[in-house]
Amino acid sequence: MDYLDKLNPQQKEAAIHKEGPMLILAGAGSGKTSTMTHRIAYLIKEEGISPYNILAVTFTNKAAKEMRDRVEELIGEGLNMWILTFHSACLRILRKHAERAGYTNDFVVYDPTDQKVVIKNCIKEHNVDEKKYSSAYILSIISDCKEKGISPSDYAKRNGLDFKNEIIHDLYLAYESVLKKNNAMDFDDLIKETVEIFEKNEEILAFYQNKFRYIMVDEYQDTNYMQYLFVKLLAKAHNNICVVGDDDQCIYQWRGADIKNILNFERDFKNTKVIKLEQNYRSDGNILEAAHSVIENNKGRKRKKLWTYKEKGEKIKYYRADNEKDEARYIAQEVDRTRSGELPYSSFAVLYRTNVQSRIFEEAFLAREIPYRVLGGIRYYDRKEIKDIMAYMRLVQNTADDLSLARIINEPKRGIGGKTLEKLRALASVRNESLFDTLADNEVMEGLPAKAIEGVREMIGAIRQFSQEKDNLKVSDIYDGLLVRTGYLKSLEILNTVESEGRIENLLEFKSVIYDYENEDPRLSLSEFMEKVALLAEIDNHDAGENAVVLMTLHSAKGLEFPVVFMPGMEDGLFPGWRAFEKPDGVEEERRLCYVGMTRAMQRLYLTSAEIRTLYGKTNYTKESQFLLELDKSLVEGDAIYKSSTTSDSNSRLNHGGGNDGYSNPNIFRPFDQLKYIKYNKTAEAAAGNANLDIKEGDKVRHSKFGEGLVLSIKGEILNVAFDSVGVKMLARDMAPIKKI
Ligand code: ATP
Ligand code: MG
Fold this sequence. Notes:
This protein has about 750 residues and is an alpha/beta fold. It contains 31 helices and 21 strands. The strands form four sheets. Strands 9, 10, 11, 12, 13, 14, 15 and 16 form an eight-stranded mixed beta sheet that branches. A six-stranded parallel beta sheet has the order 3-2-6-7-1-8, with helices on both faces. It has a five-stranded antiparallel beta sheet with strand order 20-19-18-17-21.
């Protein structure tokens, strides 16, 4: 039991707790997740519990994978265990029982982009003004309803049917019927339908209750009502439920997370053992103090304070940039300056409030040739060509998926216009069959515009054939076959533009994603692959081990830790965002997010803001974030944090020389000033966009992501390059971030 010796007494007490409910409520970095991991190992190794009887739920696939790896390391062998996200766990259950909810078991999962397409169609069909009822607004209401188990008719009952509510009700109803008809579920459905199946089918619930005799949930503070029901139903039989969380880190209330779930846990589960952990193992003293000085300003919180044996360490660094470019340049420069060849790039993380901030950092990192990876943003999987090919793959999996067929019926161009599609839709609806079946009918096909017939016939033939043979084919073969037989690849080749080549490159890159999964599991089926991809939350990225600076939103960083953390955009309106001021607990939730961000840092924490920021096409002077003002100023060094002159207190918050308005006083010590004027290296920045015309076969090149490589061959604008790090890659000459060396 050596592995338990590293734990402190409270952690150990929790790790060896076997029967009965347990709540570990503790602050950031206190070892909650590690304790849970150790408990899983303990139950299996020491108590002889079968891994089959354990369910551990986390919030992201990355967290789940880390936990599985850790447990396997502690146990010393690979396990087939349910350490999963809520969505994946429910998906697994639904694959067996979806017919109880009126779906077939090979239903497809619609991600947010698909949802948007569906709701936009509904809005159009109902002649609703999208300016007044935007798709995002309607989807957020639908999602909110589903998380709370409110059906369209419940919605009508609860809210009454005035003009506005009637529109929302009708759209919700229409949206639901489209999904049902397409045999598709959205993410919210995955949990809701599972819960409903449990509630309506005693024997199914009993089976899973009996299977999952030990249940554990990480980040329980962020569970919503449906997730709570899911856990509660499963735990009812054996009562062996352990949840861990931190009320100060509840950051998903905007998505229905209910902090009450964790605060009322003791009431829900009688005789709960409560464990508090107070020692923080992650961050140096100053970072912990600083994070505490911010979160302290929240009124609705349980008082708790963490302590650490660690040194105070460095002070928090604050830099007030001239503008957002300068801010990004400063951060890239600090990565270079402080790395001194020792820290790997992956020690650095840039955590921003919104994805739109990421682009400027990409430019700055490219300019300094710093490898980076962006998690989230325009997700790789949201790119048009990837969505298109995925739509084809979905159709192979489930030909009833009208949404996917509508997406690709004229991708590539086959001469099917909007009007023809509408006619086909109407016909399918009259015949009460899928769009695919209607289109596959010879008579219908013959009636299509003459130029479209051949292409459509070929496409339908290919989809049908792959659909019949999908169980005998590798995913990569289906993928290749579809690209060729549907004419998709060819149409891009014919276009021969920079953009089309970039798309070809992405499609090739996607193949390596498929290969990665096939390497992990040579018998990977199409539906398994589709699930993996559909469930990739924004945090997940297939090359997670890469040595690169990580860029992601503060939300995605939950549960993670990095030696050096940058938090840019510390400005009112951005962080806290304007919207926070519209909701009662809005600013408090943003403050918790700030606390989450700060507590990701182990050794060094940078906060930055820009005096002038261009965002969403508007350029404005900014005001420093109120969270900066709340910071204990004795823990910060760098630029003075000042209060805007529009507020009553215009004193400097930092005592660097004791001026009034610290920012304009030239005598004030501002050690970071000198850095501002180091020239921004424009030429390197442009490297990504230059045409790389001089590259020849046999040349050595450097890629911003893959490092050094050798050009094996050149075909047109596509380079075949062998990289030491990742093997041979096909790259588009103009698009790839490469430079001859
Ligand atoms: P968060 O609230 O951010 O999710 P957490 O409470 O889950 O944090 P962990 O991620 O489990 O905390 O642990 C934080 C860090 O502290 C990890 O690097 C972990 O390895 C380390 N750690 C935890 N417990 C101990 C211990 N007893 N001795 C040494 N290091 C520890
Ligand atoms: Mg954790």
